[in-house]
Amino acid sequence: MKRHQKIDTPQRDHRLDGMVQGVLGAPLDRIDGSVKVQGLAPYAGEARLPGLAHGVLVRAPQIGRITGMDTDRLQRFPGVLLVLTEGLPRNSAQGTADTAPPSSGDRADYVGQPVALVVAETLEQAQHAALQAEVAIAATGGVTDPEAADTPVETPEKKQLDLGDLDRALAEAAFRLDETYRTPTLSSAPLEPHAAVAHWQDGRLELHGSYQMLKYNVAQLADALDVAPDRIRLLAPFVGGGFGSKLGIGAEAVGAALAARKLDRPVSVRLHRRQVFEMTSRRSETRQRIRLAADRDGKLTGIGHDSLVSNLPGEAFSEPVAQGTRFNYAAPNRRILHQIARVGRISAGSVRAPGEAVGVTAFETAMDELALQIGLDPVELRLRNMPDCDPVSGKPFSSHMLAEALREGAGRFGWQHRPPRSRREGEWWIGMGMASAVRVNMLMESEARVTLSPAGEALVETDMTDIGTGSYTILAQIAAEMLGLPMARVSTRLGDTDLPPAAGSGGSFGASSSGSAVYLACLELRSRIARSLGCAETDLTLKDGDAIHANHRTPLAEILAGESWSAVGHVEPGQTAKDVRAGTYGVNFAEVAVNDVTGETRLRRMEGVFACGRILNEKTARSQCHGGMIWGIGMALTEALLHDPRDGHAVNRDLAEYHLPVNRDTPAIGVHFLDERDDWVGPLQSKGIGELAICGAGAAVVNAIHNACGVRIRDYPATPDKVL
Ligand code: MOS
């Protein structure tokens, strides 16, 4: 039995509001937490298959044409089984494309590109040989600076916007701003390094891989290996963070699969930390020129957002910097210029909240500057510019609680009690700043199966991934609520492509999409239970394992009478995805202390308020926001992957030199969710949450720095040398 729904109309079915189990939304601990902290959760690189050989990727030392490799010499190193130089992709694939990433061929397009795989009996032998590898390259040099005069730049027509007359708005404005902001290359830096363990049997590949979107990853692998997708099984029951860098397969997966096929034995390829920085996708650096025109009352009349990002030649992805600028504030005149420089730097791809993470951050810095210029409270400036529909298309918002978030956040943070000028405590200047958060919201096609066992227990199955986000837990919560079962009677299986194909984890659509599929499967089971009791599904109450109808309580086990009942739910976006503008909204407030002597900035406290539709688990949702806000601290203060100006290589490619905020850098963080149900976005009325809090979080911090000491940072991050 299958229940399929295209989201074509607003969801008037508020069934979950009347649910009685009381599980959905509750701040439950993650059900996978215990195996994780015990070290019992199997991660991809830990698969120990009999006869396992180990592969280590070799990096390109220069940009140019690869003229040869000393494979014969490497083959004679102890333990070496194979040196693979063909068929490796030059980077990890992007987004939802189901084709393999482009292969290296005989070109090294950037320094650090994987160009060979050395496979040996042991990891140490493979590492030893790979270190000795000499890749001969006819160095052609290459353009590596996106802003250099001779760098090729593309301006794809589809990505531009010109609405009204921005020049005129600027000319006639009472207040205008024209400033340029820069954000550096950023790394996703997941805790679990990318890894793949491949094993072929009877022409069928089984691959343990650390990936986010398995149904696409299978298609990509099939394309790279030239086999049918149904000959591939991908296993990713646990993923230790992805943040976009595991959306697509990389050289580790293709290399492991090719080598395993050649050697006819299992092969493991695990990136080491420096390779995670260098061989997986980065977030492009950006240059953003922002122009704002405002009238006397602080109402925006014009918005201009020009961005320059970069990627390798031939890559489809480009950081959609101004995505949030299409709908953040009202203004009749709006121009967006989007340009892509083609450079020999690590491939650029999706990193947490691609677009808004850096675009909203720069924009919200500009808004702070404008507010000061006008002499308006920064919160008030934003409130005066609330759009009542999508400013570009005129479509209605599915729901829009930015104004409420601004007011609630200001109250919680104590914004109105801000001292009129910055305070000083010894060597420290204290200041406060804020920034709105906006992010697009999406639903993606997703499928799940729910099975009721004769004992009245439920099993949820889908190839959805849990990348540390809480998928295991929220999917079980949805099933528990819908089927009236205690959590202990629901189990969840994820991360296996033998299970129904899910949306996967990306773009903040994972929870709502895979959750809707689980919801629909449960709805089908509820209908069947109702039929067997001879009542309407809407007259049925399921609670604590019993079906209650007309004051009659029947245990589920009795209804099932020794059978198992299974149902599949399938959701896909329909017309509403085109008819409304769905987004998520929020605000970040920050208080900082800036050291007058050293220029060091310390966060004192941070407070976020977010509106993301129904919250499925208050604890995991809050953790997502903590993560996003901490990324904001990193973006504001410390994170930058630096490229050597001579050859573009990433200089600080480890966790010692790429500075992520640690506990010591992170203050008490408050997160509050507004009570919101969005009828347009799916039966759960929930929206994406993973990527919202990062959008603009860095701006709240640099705006606070300005408030503290008067230094305006437009070149992120605000390292002490820039603050002093
Ligand atoms: Mo995300 S950057 O779509 O994992």
Automatic annotation (TrEMBL):
<dbReference type="InterPro" id="IPR046867">
    <property type="entry name" value="AldOxase/xan_DH_MoCoBD2"/>
</dbReference>
<dbReference type="InterPro" id="IPR036856">
    <property type="entry name" value="Ald_Oxase/Xan_DH_a/b_sf"/>
</dbReference>
<dbReference type="Pfam" id="PF01315">
    <property type="entry name" value="Ald_Xan_dh_C"/>
</dbReference>
<dbReference type="InterPro" id="IPR000674">
    <property type="entry name" value="Ald_Oxase/Xan_DH_a/b"/>
</dbReference>
<dbReference type="InterPro" id="IPR016208">
    <property type="entry name" value="Ald_Oxase/xanthine_DH-like"/>
</dbReference>
<dbReference type="Pfam" id="PF02738">
    <property type="entry name" value="MoCoBD_1"/>
</dbReference>
<dbReference type="Pfam" id="PF20256">
    <property type="entry name" value="MoCoBD_2"/>
</dbReference>
<protein>
    <submittedName>
        <fullName>Xanthine dehydrogenase family protein molybdopterin-binding subunit</fullName>
    </submittedName>
</protein>
<dbReference type="InterPro" id="IPR037165">
    <property type="entry name" value="AldOxase/xan_DH_Mopterin-bd_sf"/>
</dbReference>
<feature type="domain" description="Aldehyde oxidase/xanthine dehydrogenase a/b hammerhead">
    <location>
        <begin position="38"/>
        <end position="141"/>
    </location>
</feature>
<dbReference type="InterPro" id="IPR008274">
    <property type="entry name" value="AldOxase/xan_DH_MoCoBD1"/>
</dbReference>
